[in-house]
Amino acid sequence: MFKKSFYTLLAAALLLNLSSCEDSAATAEVGIGAGIGGSMAQFTVYNGQLYLLQADKLHTYDLQDPATPAKSNSLTVGQDAETVFPYAGKLYIGTQSGMHILSLQNPRQPQYLSTYQHITSCDPVVVEGNYAYLTLRTESECRWGVDQLEILDISNPQNPQLIYQRVMHNPKGLAVNNGILYVSNGDRGLLVLDVSNPYNPVELKEYPDFNGWDVIYTWRSLMMVGSDGLVQYDPADPANLRQVSVIPVQPTL
Amino acid sequence: MNRPTNFLLALLLVGTFLTGCMGPDEDEQPFREYYRPVYAAEQLAYRIQVQPARTLQNPGRIYVKDHLLIINERFKGFHLIDNSDPANPQPLLFLEVPGAGNMAMQGSFMYVDNMTDLLTLDLSNLQDIREVNRQKGVFDGRQNYPPMRNVAFECVDPKRGVVVGWEKADMPGKGYECFR
Known about the structure:
The complex is a heterodimer.
Chain A: H1 2-20, E1 36-37, E2 43-46, E3 49-54, E4 57-62, E5 70-76, E6 81-87, E7 90-95, E8 98-103, E9 111-117, E10 125-128, E11 131-136, E12 148-153, E13 161-167, E14 174-177, E15 180-184, E16 190-194, E17 202-207, E18 214-217, E19 222-226, E20 229-234, E21 242-248
Antiparallel strand pairs in A: 2-3, 3-4, 4-5, 6-7, 7-8, 8-9, 10-11, 11-12, 12-13, 14-15, 15-16, 16-17, 18-19, 19-20, 20-21
Chain B: H1 2-22, E1 34-40, E2 49-51, E3 59-65, E4 68-73, E5 77-82, E6 90-96, E7 103-106, E8 109-114, E9 117-122, E10 130-135, E11 152-153, E12 162-169, E13 178-179
């Protein structure tokens, strides 16, 4: 008797759960709000503004009417700005010579706060809590740069401090969630690090099967894109990611 | 007496660096990477088209909006995928946007780059995707050389259309004419 009602309850709960994350099977409906980009993004939507990088400028478009972006600002952020990442009221701009932090106190008018300079290379940046994670990579082996991961303490956004660096194999895009850092590492695939202590990251596991260029974390799926295609992992256990699907690259001959 | 020695030493050092850089058998071909222009017909370069889903060839940036997964096909457009079930992603369609490399969304509106223009597309009905806004001249567009440095490339031939992007290719046996 108890068992039966328990199962009925369970079934009801399951159904409720299903309907609450309802999606029609054939067409992925899209709701209000912004989506999630990878760390290589040059466009980002944050708090009703569209920010986009173009040459040495960051353009801001107001999305009060999202069908008609209205340009509200243009800020020179310097040559070779490559990536933009929004986090907690700030924008983090990855450039070939360093990382800029911009304040979005006025979302329509980003204000320059600081720059963390590094040697010439290419760097996407992601942020969680008081720490920024950036990868530096050399595009060509003839550059004198290095391939490495750097962690910055940004608790004082006016004065970011390098707290950790580690040589890596041509690292590219990255994602961080809840103290776990996912680094796409070119031909070496995906490297997962525990950064709950950002002064002393611990390598959890390397997933070398697919070329990695950028990653996006969502609680449902960790997605990595690279020259082999798009691979998705169940992110439940970062030390043991379970590959759930692949959309392969199929070059036309 | 000392100076020439130092100079020679310095020369030797520089020489070591240079050879290390170019590799032992690449004296004739200092560039390792070779790129080829991707062309579009001039009259098609600013036309957006919805096409049947197709396979990935040269995937670039990715973007997630609710259960919609978007994969950029570099310089060509976007794969739209229903990712309600990450174990079984369902391709929906291919959105052809010449030159496109970037995207972001607010609600059902998608912002993309089409050559020099910033486009707003309404995805509220995927059976009927509409271009609702076009702002001209926001981006520089593609140049007649690849954005990467220290590379060789196939020289642009304007007769073949406008350059919408660059793809990696094998270094031709006869060598290269253009480089940067």
